[in-house]
Design brief:
The chain has helices at residues 84-101, 156-166, 180-189, 212-221, 229-242, 278-286, 299-307, 328-337, 349-359, and strands at 3-7, 10-11, 17-21, 24-28, 36-44, 48-58, 125-131, 134-138, 145-147, 173-178, 209-210, 247-253, 268-275, 292-296, 315-319, 341-346, 363-371, 381-388. By secondary structure, the protein is of the alpha/beta class.
């Protein structure tokens, strides 16, 4: 493959810099807009090409030295080479761009991104992988592992757990390492069906080894114990601020353990939370008030049944779907009911943009607020606040 000289014009959602050669987009990781680079083309398609830096000819003033020795090889972080203030600008721009390009949504009231108070050492848990004596994360664009002694974006307590794991001979598999607080929260939510609490450590005191089925459960657990405590609290406070008072019914779809519902319980006469994960629902039910009902089941089916019995003028809804966004069935159910208030919490701006396209007809988008839940990575959390057109304003 050939080597070309290019100027980086933008940073695309996902973290790669974008240059153009004869009108064709060329994606180059670990670059910043405005930089001049020599890049080696590694993959070329009709519509785009991918490349790797050979020489950084002109640096951005926003470029910093990454503190992690694995950065560039590890698949976890994308932005350690960019100063934090500019990371926030990049992510805000990406949210607006995705809403316009995918959702065809113009003049969206985009609020300032909510930053993380910690830019490193913020993760209260990580999942590492073990294979043939190597313990760490997957390499960038690969299923091969890179051996990791310490992760700079993980909290010190989590890194101590990693060191303890590395001191043992462990079987191949996936290991989730947590702070003590996160372990206590998880302990409450991992009861088996016969009431016995789920195992948290092995008999030798090592962190829990998770099967692929267990990994699904832990991925679901993310929805109700966020990995960045400070931004999770800011997210909860934002939901409280956006939700109008004195409402009759809140429907919380993909509710997890009721993280949002319990924060706004005083604003409603009744709350119904729905989630497919029975462990999350069990945790929600443990300290539920008389106002709260939590249902474990298929979200689309339960939501469709529930919406038929609602007074839309007295109903508000929160949706917090996984990265794939809302199914077509759920989007149609929301449009058919058109509750007075809808708050959409998204971990994927692209699927949020797609879904808002279908939801915008009965609703007005009042605000869109990004949150930086995962500094140094390309991930972006976004909250969209929608109000039905003929409903009273918040």
């Amino acid at each position: 493959m050939r080597t070309v000289d290019l100027k980086i014009e933008d940073i695309a959602f996902g973290g790669k810099g974008v240059a153009r050669e004869n009108g064709k987009a060329v994606f180059i990781p670990f670059t910043i807009e405005g930089e001049l680079v020599s890049a080696h083309i590694t993959r070329e398609k009709k519509q785009f090409a991918e490349a790797e830096i050979v020489d950084l000819r002109e640096k951005s003033p926003h470029r910093v030295k990454p503190p992690c020795p694995y950065f560039g090889r590890c698949g976890g972080c994308a932005y350690q080479h960019i100063d934090y203030e500019h990371q926030l600008e990049v992510k805000s721009h990406q949210v607006r761009d995705v809403l316009q390009r995918i959702g065809k949504l113009k003049d969206v009231p985009l609020h300032a991104i909510i930053p993380s108070s910690l830019t490193y050492a913020y993760r209260n848990r990580v999942t590492v992988h073990a294979e043939n004596g190597v313990i760490g994360y997957y390499r960038r664009d690969s299923h091969r592992l890179i051996d990791v002694e310490r992760c700079p974006i993980a909290m010190d307590e989590v890194n101590r757990e990693l060191a303890a794991l590395r001191s043992h001979d462990v079987r191949d598999g996936h290991y989730t390492l947590r702070t003590k607080v996160d372990r206590l929260l998880r302990r409450r939510s991992t009861r088996s069906e016969n009431g016995v609490r789920g195992s948290r450590t092995t008999s030798t005191g090592q962190p829990e080894r998770v099967s692929s089925r267990g990994s699904e459960r832990i991925n679901a657990f993310h929805h109700f114990t966020q990995t960045n405590d400070g931004v999770a609290n800011a997210l909860r406070d934002l939901i409280v601020q956006l939700m109008p008072p004195n409402q009759e019914l809140l429907i919380d779809a993909f509710c997890g353990a009721g993280f949002f519902a319990k924060a706004v319980v005083d604003k409603f006469e009744r709350i119904v939370g729905i989630d497919w994960d029975r462990f999350a629902i069990a945790a929600a039910q443990e300290n539920a008030s008389e106002k709260e009902t939590y249902i474990a089941g298929d979200v689309a089916a339960e939501l469709n049944s529930l919406l038929k019995k609602c007074d839309r003028d007295k109903t508000a809804m929160i949706v917090d779907p996984p990265a794939i966004g809302l199914s077509a069935q759920i989007r149609q159910s929301i449009v058919d009911l058109a509750p007075a208030t809808l708050i959409y919490v998204s971990c994927n701006p692209a699927t949020l943009a797609r879904d808002l396209t279908d939801l915008q007809h009965p609703f007005k988008i009042e605000s869109v607020t990004p949150l930086d839940m995962f500094p140094q990575t390309s991930e972006i959390e976004v909250v969209a606040q929608l109000q039905r057109f003929n409903a009273s304003a918040i």
